[in-house]
Amino acid sequence: MKAELPPTPAERPERLAIARMSTNDIPEVTRIERASFATTWPADAFFNELSTNKLAHYFVGRLEGRIVAYGGIWVILEDSHITTVAVAPELRGRGLGEAMLVHLLDRAIERGAAWMTLEVRESNTAAQSLYRKYGFTTVTMRKGYYSDDNESALVMWAGNLKSALFRNRLDVLRARHERAS
Ligand SMILES: CC(C)(COP(=O)(O)OP(=O)(O)OC[C@H]1O[C@@H](n2cnc3c(N)ncnc32)[C@H](O)[C@@H]1OP(=O)(O)O)[C@@H](O)C(=O)NCCC(=O)NCCS
User: Which of 74, 88, 119, 133 has the fewest CB atoms within 10 Å distance of its CB?
Assistant: First the structure.
């Protein structure tokens, strides 16, 4: 049997190209949103975030020009919050969500954030595991937070984003992730 040769650089899947979300991206983003969440943001929620919320920063990730991931943060002085992050269902498990999370952390730190919080469904173990990998811990639970089925939310938090320890951890994980993708 012939051994499988490692892909040459030209054959490797393209790396996620992350850029600021624009209002033109909203139709593609809402398609992923509908495939990803039980309760979804309507297109005008994204439009308002992009056009009126000065604290909001949204990004899309493209592969071969197609939007396959997106994510957003609010940064209010030292406080930052992940508002949403999602990857197209057929492309999950390939490191794209991680690439988007690293981007969100980098942008928050760049803007002076010292900590980051988010809410995640109690049953969403994939997302929780991604956040834990990057140093987030569960700080509290909001009972019945999600209105569609009354599921509780875990509130996760990563502190000391400005510390050398956090930055080193981020650098190590980023380098490992870039090597793997
Ligand atoms: C959560 C989500 C963004 C992760 O994106 P992804 O591209 O599939 O994840 P990645 O391939 O980058 O995986 C990165 C890490 O996430 C965790 N993870 C991803 N999928 C997982 C799964 N099915 N089970 C357990 N952990 C998982 C692992 O820690 C993984 O790191 P590892 O590869 O070292 O084990 C994606 O599953 C998604 O879009 N889900 C629907 C929307 C959503 O739930 N968003 C989060 C709202 S809080």
Answer: 133
The answer, yes or no, to whether any atom of ligand 1 lies below 6 A from the CB of 177, is no
Q: How many CB atoms lie within 10 A of CB 49?
A: 20
Per-residue pLDDT of the chain (181 residues; tens, 9 = 90+): 455 554 444 444 568 999 999 999 999 999 999 999 999 999 999 999 999 999 999 999 999 999 999 999 999 999 999 999 999 999 999 999 999 999 999 999 999 999 999 999 999 999 999 999 999 999 999 999 999 999 999 999 999 999 999 999 999 999 999 898 7
Q: Sheet harboring 79-87: ordered strands across?
A: 17-20, 56-63, 66-76, 79-87, 115-121, 153-158, 137-142
Atom of ligand 1 nearest to the CA of 127: 1
Q: State the CATH architecture for 13-180.
A: 3-Layer(aba) Sandwich (3.40)
Residue with tokens 């992009």: 50
Q: Could you tell me the distance, in angstroms and rounded to a whole number, from the CA of residue 2 to the centre of ligand 1?
A: 33
Please give the helix or strand (H or E) that residue 74 lies within, else none. Answer: strand 66-76
- CA 164–ligand 1 middle distance (angstroms): 26
Question: Hey, what are 163's tokens?
Answer: 């510390």
Residue 18, CA distances (Å) to 34, 63, 65, 74, 96 in order: 21, 9, 11, 17, 10
